[in-house]
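Form 7-S
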Amino acid sequence: MTKLQYALLGDIHSSIEDLKAVLGHISIEAPHAEVIGLGDLYECTVSKKDLRGQIYPSVNEVIKHPEGFEKLLTFPSVYGNQEERILLLTEHAEPLRDYLHDLSETLSAGEAVIIHGHQWNSDERNAWLNAQIPDKTIVFHGHTHRAGYTRDQQEMLISGRGKISLSGKRNIVNVGAVVGSREWVLFNAEERTVRFMRAQRG
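Output:
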């Protein structure tokens, strides 16, 4: 059976409490939706400016790794820039590294494409998408930690949690971040609608 609803979340950065809150919210608001991640599952503890070609013996030496975090990662995900850096800093095969290595750059949710969003500079997003995936009319990404969306290159207003119709030639939706903000997006592929969601604290 084809999935009609997708719960999209990204930029977790090893925040287990925020991820638990978002997954709990999804289980209430959209229990039958397929959950898909948009990358930056883990937080790399070595910053980009500190990359000097060094190699660490284990992935655990370069990530924030809260106990029980893996058990929550039951959903498919694309890779993000954090995953790229973790792989760059390590080279020895181990289960967690193999898992990160095997993440895809893009995934599909109905007719939509899912990508992390670090592949382009902010002012080059449309040019990159036109060059790389010109046939996709709905694009979901994260990376910036700022929820929002554009329709045919025009910034659109997000008002509450109401359904937003994805019309026009191209809709680009930034799902926001799990870490800190506890944001996610519910995409109905049959209706071509999205709802911007946020799990509450406490």
